[in-house]
Amino acid sequence: MKNIINLIAEKEDNNQRVDQFIAHKEPSLSRTRIKNLIIKSKLKINKKIIEDPSKKIIAGDLLFLEIPKPKQLSLKPYEYKLDIIFEDEDLLVVNKSAGISIHPGPGNYDNTIVNALINYNKKLSNIGDELRPGIVHRLDKDTSGLILIAKNNLSHENLSNQFNNHTVNRIYQALIWGKLRPQKGKIETYIKRSSKNRQLMEVSFSRGKKAITNYKTLNVFENKKIPTFSLIECKLETGRTHQIRVHMAFKGNNILGDKKYKKKFKKIKNIDLGLEKTLIELDRQFLHAKSIGFIHPRNGQKLDFTSNLPSDLELVVKKLRNACK
Q1: What is d(CA 173, CA 307) in angstroms, rounded to the nearest whole number?
Q2: Residue ranges per domain, the chain?
């Protein structure tokens, strides 16, 4: 049985965001839930499907929001050791290893962080996607580092708003080919899905979602016997799909080991064979979610967490440093 909410925009509702309008009229629905429904094509305005939660309404608009019956899903527990660095009644901070997906999806419904949390008997929020309980943001499968998990709906709503308002402090470390010019700065573009390959994203200056990456160079590794690499730090103002990877590729400084936005490895004469082997055999992108800072959704305390580079990435840095001595 589907539930349909019918609403009419009045004169005083003119130019209001549609998600805010519905949230005001239907306080039983969280704004996060409303956004998810709109994105999933469950909203019609004047019989036209709308998928943009930020769309402005005008007086006289007729809105029809479909509330689907909740699916009964049985997500399987996955026996996997999680590195939980913080936990209380409202949230968890997990230090994610590379090679594991955050949540179930096509091709992998069983071996994810969500399944591992279920195996730990963790209570998770349920106001988002049914395949993503507790998930308020994500990391790519082959990106390591800190991920924030909501254990209840109050936390999920609050943390989601912090992400939407760009007040969550997220810093990543990456190793890129070459040197960034300038070595410190801001990349501000739009990012949209690639028209050539739907699995990839690409920079645009007119379409897509606004994406802002602040970056600074920490170290440059260069001499005549090695390719030039830079260890950089990126602070996100937005969190678009593959944002750092796309922005670095756009600058011509692709991330080492990135299989989707890759750069061909060039043979260097007299290169240290141990270093060359380490660079070639890195089986994932050198990208690590180093730190995350946010306001606790219940007590208002400012929390900050940091994760060191994992051993596979630290080994690359160590060998580059040694090669430059």
Answers
A1: 10
A2: 3-67, 84-164, 169-323
Judge contact between 60 and 9, C-beta under 8 A: yes
The verdict on whether 140 is a catalytic residue reads yes
Q: What is the C-alpha separation between 190 and 187, in angstroms, rounded?
A: 10
Q: Which of 61, 140, 142, 258 is catalytic?
A: 140
Task: Choose the CATH number for 169-323 among 3.30.2350.10, 3.40.30.10, 3.40.50.300, 3.10.310.10.
Answer: 3.30.2350.10
> Parallel, antiparallel, or unpaired: how do β-strands 201-204 and 209-223 relate?
unpaired
Per-residue pLDDT tens digits for 285-323: 999 999 999 999 999 999 999 999 999 999 999 999 998
Tokens of 228: 């030039």
Q: Determine the residue type at 44.
A: K
Q: Does domain 3-67 correspond to CATH entry 3.10.290.10?
A: yes
Nearest by Cα to 159 from 6, 63, 30, 278:
30
Spatial CA neighbour of 187 closest among 221, 208, 216? 216
